[in-house]
Amino acid sequence: MLIDYGLSPIGHLHLSADHASRPAVRFIEHHIDQLRDSYGVEEIEVVIPTHIHDDHVCGIPHLQKHFNTQCWALDGLAKVIVDPAAWATTP
After folding, report:
1. How many domains does the chain contain in total?
2. CA distances (Å), 74 to each of 31, 32, 42, 45, 50, in order?
3. Which among 1, 55, 73, 91 would be 20 to 30 A from 84, CA to CA?
């Protein structure tokens, strides 16, 4: 289980241009190799986001796609995760 899985530490962030040619931070998988190599973690069954910010949630789709990870969230957070475009003020 992971609590939050978002952006990597500042030294590993990947910056690239978004659609308007402005700098944007892009998600990069981080710490998964270390968890496997150092601690024998082979599966990530569940991720629990504590709140909605990219540094806490932007890696959740990656976990779901590559590890079939479930996301457990409070109802208020779940609504934003399921339909982020409906929440104009959400980063």
Report:
1. 1
2. 25, 25, 26, 17, 9
3. 1
Question: Per-residue pLDDT tens for 9-34?
Answer: 665 555 565 556 655 666 678 889 99
SS3 content of the chain, % helix, strand, coil (to 5): 35, 15, 45
Long-range contacts of 7-10 (CB under 8 A, 24+ apart): 7/54, 7/55, 7/58, 7/59
- β-pairing, 23-26 vs 14-17, is antiparallel
Of the candidates 37, 35, 38, the one whose C-alpha atom is nearest the C-alpha of residue 1 is 35
Report the side by side order of strands in the sheet with 70-71.
2-3, 46-48, 70-71
For residue 64, give its domain range. Answer: 2-86
Q: Is residue 50 part of a domain?
A: yes
